[in-house]
């Protein structure tokens, strides 16, 4: 793992929501810090309402984390395109986030409770 990426258990209860719905709650979130960027909270899929997610065609590649797959959130107020991403097979040292979801902060709200 690259020295500028750090994982740790995100203590406490975390909730992911949009303006119209709670998408998930977890006590098992992982915080990923990459360099000087803001930390990103990753949620395990079993704690997220995956029925509201459609996998999109979008993928991106990070030289440190690997290839990310994207998901759109489908709700009563419409679709939030590519609002979540997941590393299905992250690079060595980051296996803990495999299959977890992270969320775009401009369209979702991640909070600790």
From TrEMBL:
Keywords: Transferase. Pfam families: NTP_transf_9. One of its GO terms (molecular function) is transferase activity. InterPro entries: DUF427 (IPR007361), DUF427_sf (IPR038694). Residues 16-105 form the DUF427 domain. This is Nucleotidyltransferase-like protein.
């Amino acid at each position: 793992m690259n020295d500028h990426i750090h994982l740790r258990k995100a203590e406490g209860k975390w909730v992911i929501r949009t303006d119209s719905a709670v998408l998930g709650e977890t006590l098992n979130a992982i915080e990923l810090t990459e360099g000087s960027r803001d930390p990103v909270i990753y949620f395990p899929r079993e704690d997220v309402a995956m029925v509201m997610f459609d996998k999109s065609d979008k993928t991106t590649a990070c030289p440190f984390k690997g290839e990310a797959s994207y998901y759109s959130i489908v709700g009563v107020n419409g679709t939030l395109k590519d609002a979540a991403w997941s590393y299905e097979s992250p690079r060595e040292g980051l296996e803990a986030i495999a299959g977890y979801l992270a969320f775009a902060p401009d369209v979702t709200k991640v909070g600790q409770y």
